[in-house]
Amino acid sequence: MDTLGKAKRVRIYVSEDDRADGKPLHLAILELLRRENAQGATVLKGVEGFGATGRIHVSNLADVAWQLPVIVEWIDRPEQVERLAPRIKTLVQHGLITVDDTDVLLFEPHPVRDLAATAVAGDVMSREVASVTRSTPVREVVELTVGKTYRAVPVVENGRPVGIVTNGDLVHRGGLGVRLDLLASLDKPEVHDLLERLSQQNRTAGDVMTPDPVTVAVSAPLPAVAELMVRRRLKRLPVIDARGALVGMVSRVDLLRTAGVGFGRKEPVARELGLDGDQPLSRVMRRDVPTVDPESPLPEVFQAVTSTRLNRALVVDADRRPVGLVTDAELLERVTPALRPGAIRSLMQRLPFRHGKGEESAAAHTRGRTAAEVMTREVATVREDVLLSEAVATMLRGENKVLAVTDADGRVVGIVDRADLLHGLIPQGR
């Protein structure tokens, strides 16, 4: 039996009288899933049943109907379930949530799931956005962003964004010294020391923020949002309402998700959204691919990783077929604390990775001396002749940040990241 792919099935068991945010809980769950571009969900009302209390609820006059058990069933891509499950758990105070693997045999949704050609920022943005004030300590700003989807925090006054603290702001003006996405690669004592140093500097969000941030209106059409991101080289934008108040954040991933929905779906859907996803990937891929071979020594791997803004390098065999991927975070994880400062300096300032006591000593302080020993073998690949919308779907399927582009024989001919894909989605002539 041919299937379209793997998915996760989530079942949420609650009661009809459960509530969240002043509304029935099952409706609150549906609204959250809809806002976050989930594939779909169904609410099933039980005829009778019982939960942890042991009380049996039945649909007759002796038992009020709104006390019946309710099941919300949601089927989606594994990475989407992983992303949204924590927020579902926050909504469900009392109940049961189960997750299991399932095969998708058929998936034929409407082309763009209610999003018309006039789809706007408010249709795809994330509404649950953390914000700070000018007086918020920089340490708190960092703690708000660690492990979060958005690595930028709006600074607000009376609900209106007056600045934004980005990854770059924290590194260059906030004294952080290392990008937020690399913090997870440090040991807990190292992270604690970094945060303590930030506390001692007594800097606030107002001291380090970028003032007058670029924003988009909640009613801004998606092509205009995409064009603004590409032209200004921004990864995310605060979204404001007609009064100028912050109502959400829209990111590259939010826009890409509208053009790559579905389980293994290959037909383009971006054009109905005003985006241009039905062109070959070869038109937008970059051909300056940072590569190393499996036996490349660690200093050479550092140089390849820092040679482009991708902060990654492909590991290829003698026939230029991809066999692995090395990221800056993986390199940092492989270096012991003794060499960590030098490794951070190399990655942040794009300098050669050296150690004052010589390469032999440096090798003794690393867990892995060649590309093959530090790489991950899972490399997301697409062929250069696939449609852009299919490449977007592949990018999102595994939360990948880059795709290796190959020819018909599987040899690497290019590479794309999220910025490249978003640039390609902007209709020609804009």
Automatic annotation (TrEMBL):
Residues 125-182, 209-267, 285-344, 375-430 form the CBS domain. It comes from the Bacteria. Pfam families: CBS, DUF190. InterPro entries: CBS_dom, CBS_dom_sf, Diverse_CBS-Domain, N-reg_PII-like_a/b, N-reg_PII/ATP_PRibTrfase_C, UPF0166. Keywords: CBS domain. SUPFAM superfamilies: CBS-domain pair, GlnB-like. PROSITE patterns: CBS. PANTHER family: CBS DOMAIN-CONTAINING PROTEIN (PTHR43080:SF2), CBS DOMAIN-CONTAINING PROTEIN CBSX3, MITOCHONDRIAL (PTHR43080). Belongs to the UPF0166 family. This is CBS domain-containing protein.
